[in-house]
Amino acid sequence: VLKKFEEEDLDDLLRKRLKDSSELPGALWHIYAGKDADKIREFLQKIAKEQGLEVLPEHDPIRDQSWYVNKKLRQRLLEEYGVKTCTVIQFLGDAVILPAGALHQVQNFHSCVQVTEDFVSPEHLVQSFHLTQELRLSKEEINYDDKLQVGN
Q1: What is the total count of domains within the chain?
Q2: From CA 78, how far away is CA 69, in angstroms rounded?
Q3: I need a labelling partner for 134 at 20 to 30 A (CA). Which of 46, 63, 124, 126 fits?
Q4: What is the pLDDT of residues 25-75, one digit of tens each?
């Protein structure tokens, strides 16, 4: 597990925490700005075509969660599309808070429990409404009603 983390682009604080034997790393997060969603979607469709996979117009490579963007692909995403990745290691007892609309992937290395809480602030109502509409348009989404209750 430690070898996997050492291969990542980590800041000095995370590297220091990894060396602390009292800290238990549990998950590796890669977080992307929500504004980069279209670039990431285009990139994943490009990769699928390169691999000879059929790209159906009704499938969203982000929402169907069929991809894990590894280090090599993250480097390509940066070079070809200018999309930066924020890499975070979640240690035992840590909470990770994501901004609304942030795309992310998580690789768990120990038993984990996920607790999710959504919060809509008046300052970000427009963005929350946009996200809700985007999810409703996804035909593959099983439960696409307004979970955030933006209408309220």
Answers
A1: 1
A2: 12
A3: 46
A4: 999 999 999 899 999 999 999 999 999 988 887 788 887 888 899 999 999
The residue whose two tokens read 């000879």 is 52
Q: Are the C-beta atoms of residues 60 and 68 closer than 8 Å to each other? A: no
Whole-number Cα distances in Å, 48 to 15, 41, 56, 77? 33, 11, 10, 14
- Residues 39 and 18: their CA atoms lie apart, in Å, by 32
Determine, yes or no, domain membership for 27: yes
| Residue 70 located in a structural domain | yes
Tokens of residue 95, six digits: 């909470």
Secondary structure letter of residue 35 according to DSSP: G
Nearest one of 45, 1, 46 to 24, comparing CA atoms: 1
Q: Would 20 be classed as within a structural domain?
A: yes
Give the C-alpha separation, 131 to 134, whole Å: 5
Q: Is residue 129 part of a domain?
A: no
Q: E strands of the chain, at which residues? A: 25-32, 86-91, 103-108
Give the domain range for residue 18: 1-117
- Alpha-carbon dihedral sign for residues 64, 62, 140, 50: negative
Answer for the pair 27, 89: CB distance below 8 angstroms, yes or no. yes
